[in-house]
Amino acid sequence: MNTKLWEPSNPEATAVARLQRELGFDSYSDLHAWSIQNPGAFWSKAWDDCQIVGYKGSELYDSGKDFISARFFKDAKLNVAENLLSKGNDEDVAIISILEDGIRTEITWAQLRAQVGATTAALRALGIVKGDRVAAWVPNVTETIIFTLGALSIGATVSTASPDFAPAAVQDRFGQIEPKVLLAADSYQFNGKLFDCTSKIAQIEELLPSLIHTVQISQFAAWIAPFMGSPLDFEPLPFDHPGFVLFSSGTTGKPKCITHSGAGVMLKANAEMLYQFDIEAAQKVFFFTTCGWMMWNWLFMALGRGATIVLFDGAPMYPAPSRLFDIAQSEHLDFLGVSAKLIDTAHKEGLKPIKTHDLSNIKVIGSTGSVLSPESFDYVYSSIKRDVHLASMSGGTDICGCFLAGVPNKPVHRGELQGPCLGMA
After folding, report:
1. Quick check: 155 pLDDT over 80?
2. Which residue segment(s) compose the domain that 189 sits in?
């Protein structure tokens, strides 16, 4: 076994340790074995521990004749948006948004709920109903979250892409799902350069004949303003109702649609956040991502934990290589999520935030996107923070989640992922 770099100071206080004790298991490996041998019982327990709002039903799992026909919670009725909006106190901050140019905004849970109610009403006024598709070609900003929650409230299916995608690339993706409404970026900034998107919006509208309405980010507040005061309106949906469409990379032809159950994505992400990362209500959770990566979907599911999500749109090392560490310090992040490549780049840049930044609040550093090298493990503990849970993650767009990730009641060893996620064989 490789060198031990970290071990939890109070492993018995973690959620996964509590689950072990409750179910009578002596080790994480025993708990994991139970979770994959008893999928219905495990995911039912995750439903309860994550405080999912809705009707679970009595049929927890039907294995079917193969994995394609397998079904979880066949009788269930719930709404993803309702769950993501049900946890936080009205006066607490739900979302913090930071742009590359330094503009910072925040929105409380009460404001978020009010704006989602208005967005739902605005979409219904356009005739959007359960089963329709909507799309967003957007930066990683608060309006994108609100738009998505409004659509999910109705039972519409959402697909997102970042605004650096050219109109043809947008057509390759969104053209397959025939969206009725598009949320579009007017502009965005990256690496110090401002990009005007208005001419591309017109091109995208021509390439997507299914569109009945386009909302530009700058006009979003005006679009929902007539509907402010509308109550939250959640459509009860089956567990396997499609919530999101993600896409394959497109390296072997046109990108392939990957349709995900909204409730499945939510339950999987919240189980990971609870059991694999020990994320609690009111913690601040950040992951550097665009809206074209599944980690965006994963990040905003942290609302279901009652956490505050911190969004950043821009280049991760502009105007200085320390930009993400600056955000971690100023926002007092509890969870800092980055790609393995960013950790490697910070190492090559010679950054030593352990000396230059106050990162005392960070409890977990999550890394994914590629293999985290043993040298990067060393760098995290020598130059970023010594007492931190470094959770190297392996997952994929195909499941919109992790296969392997952190195990917060176990040590971290150099160059190693800690273990498989509960429920993942």
Report:
1. yes
2. 4-60+75-420
